[in-house]
Amino acid sequence: MKTDFNKIISVLAISALPAFAMADNAFSGFQAGAALGYEDVSMDWETDHYISAFDQSRGNPSGDTSESLDDSAFAYGVFANYNMALNGNWIIGAELGYQGSSISDSVNRIPGSNPFTGPSPNRTKAEVDVNDTVLIGIKGGYLLNDSTMAYSTLSATFTEVEVSSNCASDNILCDGSAPAHSSSDDDSITGWALALGVEKSLSDNISVRAEYRYADLGTAELAAVQYKNSAAIGVETDVDVTSQTLQIGAAYKF
Question: Could you tell me the pTM of the whole model?
Fold first, then answer.
């Protein structure tokens, strides 16, 4: 009985092998390439707390505490991936990518009234910069024909966001008798990205692709104005960052 059971298991295992056997096609193996495109980024500012310049107590802002920032810019990047071709038309793989661009926007005043000095509007300007992004993801693709693949990539993202400000000597956030107070802060945030694309093989080693990517890059927690004893009220803010990118790229298969 045990021998018959072992025979049945062996037959089933051998029968299943073709379904899991690795195949070779125009997109299997290791690739590396570069991409160029256009990126649109939204940065949603929300003033979180004010910090007293005297006792460092926290106060909640009032009024309109939010500001919608955005910027669009030329984007560039590099990527490397390894694809495994399954039996049939399916591809699975992993991809590592880098994307850079020059993204920034600014507020002419810090949103939300300061609870320590009343509702008077401040004159402190602040700029938000979204720096380079690194992506690590998994990839799935389907061959439309021998030389064309539709694919999708789901990635984790890692991005640095910076804020810089120049606190006016207006007795609202910074002491009117002191020089303007400049400060900066940064935060490394994590998020996710989903890409959809089409890749076309031109030869045994060269392929081109077009891709759309949506990314929720995460929320940066930033000190928009640094607390300074008796001279500057601190401002803490959250900035939610999302982006959309259209790009074309070329890859070399090793």
Answer: 0.84
